[in-house]
């Protein structure tokens, strides 16, 4: 289903042959349950002309605030476990009414040819605040525009993803030594932001850039160049009429924590939009976040255990609640860097030769590789670097497609033996036992996606992960290409990544047959991209002052507690009074 631009178009819905009238004031809704792909069903009740009942239903299939026709196949195949309801049969006849979907305002009206129409409402700039986050990753930069009501819930904005823009070219770290390149790469997406955000709101719109592991690595190799690139993009971003909040390199721990916030926000574990249009605290348990980027990987989850290493401790306050998190980021264990490290390890063990055999590459698959540019020009491979290396030398990597040799070589990249704490993940890093459910996103999602396409195996347990990796590693590239529509550049490393993900999750984080099924691999949730950017904007929105309340809010929990207490007291005295009156009446009747 198309999203984004479709929000701006007039979409025809519910082409019914019988005339239908909608009744009542505007209603707000959100799904009671949502499919893992972010889709859900909304059912509106209406009554046909001349009838007084409210039994007729019109169903819409919605995703990210965009609603389309729902036919029987949709109902059976994608929405059998999702439903949301709104009744529109209460007062006088209306020809137009407004409702909300995921925080976005829409208008549903009845036209002259008996078709319901849905379109995005022209909302007043005074009712919304905006924020822009540039996620400057190791391989590319993405810009996200977020929106939230000017009134806030317990100090934090109720944020939804408004739009997204992919910056062309590599990450900003790839412009090291290329003056002006990083700044220029952002121009097209910033033009998009100027069009999307009302002029009257632009000066109040926070704009920030967060760089992750790619820039962390550049900062290790060349701090001067890292600072120059940041200063360059900062100067460019300050030239726009937004409220610039800074360009900085996020710590790995912060990246992990903000990813955790995003996951739990999108799953409505902090706050949700209730049936009657109130923001409510659902009282749900949070779930952990597993992020796998290009240069680093993060694990974050809520814990009540005492953390033996305070570097892993992070406390966050959102919507009036404080959460204690364990978070850890592993630099050099992202997808791109693990592929480099594997090649560096193979070259070190086999020696610098014209051919290097890679058991994690498809059988007989060959690729030319520059020792410097493709392997050793990274601090992640420094310890494998041979003496007297010629960085311009090109070698041929030949795939042998051997599962056992592949997984053994990948395990040798980790250090599973050293640990100075009661328990560790790997490389001597403390980690308490994983508990609860987890969402795995970014490269985790794409790895399992390719595994499913190629083997038809879903990653639900360590044994299934091993089974899938064995099948993939024994295939030729031609056989793999028959199974998937993905381009060769995305699947040439699928054997490497299927084994790496398996080793990282089981040997590293200690997910076992009992806990592994609690991992959900997802790219999006609730129509929004999963990553650290939304969590970061939620944190930034704490600093944005609230305006006149533009949404109905639930009473704070303290107020509810007071009201409930008074209600109980009232009921108690009413019962006592009733008993006393009844006894008096009984006494009088006995006397008579």
UniProtKB/TrEMBL annotation:
Keywords: ATP-binding, Hydrolase, Membrane, Nucleotide-binding, Signal, Transmembrane, Transmembrane helix
Signal peptide: 1-19
A GO molecular-function descriptor: ribonucleoside triphosphate phosphatase activity
Residues annotated to bind ATP: 294-298
One Pfam family of this chain: GDA1_CD39
Cellular component, GO annotation: plasma membrane
A single GO BP: nucleoside diphosphate catabolic process
Active-site residues from the entry: 255 (proton acceptor)
Protein known as: Ectonucleoside triphosphate diphosphohydrolase 2
Provenance organism: Crenichthys baileyi
